[in-house]
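Recap quiz, item 2
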Amino acid sequence: MHILDTEGLTKRFPTVTALDGLTVTTGPGVTGLVGANGAGKSTLIKILLGLLPPTAGGARVLGLDVTTRGADIRRLVGYMPEHECLPPDVSATELVVHLARMSGLPRTAARERAADVLRHVGLAEERYRPIGGYSTGMKQRVKLAQALVHDPKLILLDEPTNGLDPRGRDEMLTLIRRIGAEFGISVLVTSHLLGELERVCDHVIVIDAGRLLRSSAIGEFTQATRSVTVEVDEGTQALADRLAELGHGVAPHGRMLLVEVTGPDTLDAIRDATADLGLCLIRLERGRQRIEDVFKETAGV
Amino acid sequence: MSEIYDIGYRHYDGPRLGRGHTTRALTVHSLRGVFGLGRPARSKLVPFSLAAIMVLPAIVSIAIMALMRREGMSYSGFAVIMQAVLAIFLASQAPTVVAPDLRFRVLPLYLSRPVTITEYVGAKVVAMTVALYALIAVPLTLMFAGELLVDLPGPPRTKEYLGAMLTGLLLAVLLAAFGLAIASLTPRRGLGVASVIALYLLASASVPIMYSTLLSAGDEDAARWAWLINPFWLVDAVQVWVFGTTPNSEGGYPDGPVSFVIVVLLIAAAVAALALRYRKAASR
Ligand SMILES: Nc1ncnc2c1ncn2[C@@H]1O[C@H](COP(=O)(O)OP(=O)(O)OP(=O)(O)O)[C@@H](O)[C@H]1O
Ligand SMILES: [Mg+2]
């Protein structure tokens, strides 16, 4: 069964077209939805929740039509908004129990489920303290817990790594992977960065200005993201020439170079080439390019 | 020594209850919020102090009936006499019902569940109504129980008591809908409190001024209309019309169902304003 499928899905706001004839399907597992700011990711999620009517076209979630079965969809789906949405003066436990009841769970079941999910997202004793005192990382965990508390079939996570430091981001991504793999709950997760989703997704959808750029299993993407960004103080061109000579795929990217990684020897080659040329290596970073850059490189292929 | 067990994720296959359950749970949750239950002690201070002040006249009234063997406070005049306390309660507690969810953008967490805007707003209005009604009905009922126990000469004032209980409910609905509509316009709690109080003061202060101005101009009929500006006298006018009680205003009210029509229109307007406000908040 399709977890979600859209058909010519279009959403126009008075001044912008947020989604433009989007046709896409995805199956169970973790699906990444990648796009730049304003690409239409949040708009798509609100339509999938049945909260925003499409202008044209249609969409189904778990086989249910978003325009007619919104209430049924919201019973089976969990949602983590991109913005802050937590009242500061209640504890995580109180909030999550209350929201479980709002999903229809009886009182005792709501308490048990809330305790369970808060443990799964890694909130310990602090869950009894008011949320106002939490770090961004802890708040994101509470937001995730409330999306999971009613044991949905699918969760829609809108930029769950937003505002997290690298470690928090890693932990969040690991959690998302576990939700998809161990909990058996399908996930649609949005991000600006293809690189960070690559690790946890089975399938990736890339949209730009409301249009589908690409939708495919993760394997087909790794080519695009398996590259490193190299920045040197001076002599960028010389380094590019040298690496190209050695047979590596190199593309200029502003003041930096994107080098395609074919194996561990690529990194060695970059190191040796910079050393040989006597250049000062400022940055060597992998997997965190902005998706639209990567795509402009590979779109023509 | 403690060990941490990771028993893995467990699915939930128990019952999922329907709309009636969620709406009721939200109403109870909001009602507890009005009285600061499940919140720190300082959140309980204001609502419970005001509730206690509302009960004081009932106790005094019972004492008068028991010791002096004469009729206590009138049931029909209770809400009008205690109006300032009710207004302060409304002003201080209405924002706690609506402001946090708007200010901290909690609404999407409700709307992404099987809770509709209508159910959400309905639960809030019912919770505030029940809270206000408790403040009116509990002292009235205490007084009535006292009257029955003291066993004054003459029949008990049952009809007046029941009339006051019904009118109190109408007053509670009007105050709740209006207070919440005003409080929902501003996500800031303090501003919400100030707006409701300011509006009440305006409505109360302008009444005597308008009344005496019109009266001195010799227009007694027009002067009676002035009372209807204040919600407490407005609802008292309904009580006079329906139950034939003594007006709690100088010179009485305009005759007929006009006050009732105004109350109904005001409630409808407040509910519509709330619906619009929340429809806008939901589309953010
Ligand atoms: N309620 C609305 N009214 C008018 N325009 C809107 C509304 N919601 C979104 N838009 C516009 O639609 C476009 C897509 O917005 P959307 O929030 O879906 O993007 P996004 O991919 O989630 O971006 P971000 O990464 O910044 O969250 C943007 O141009 C946005 O300004
Ligand atoms: Mg967004």
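Chain A has two domains: 4-222, 225-300.
The first strand of chain A starts at residue 4 and ends at 12.
End of item.
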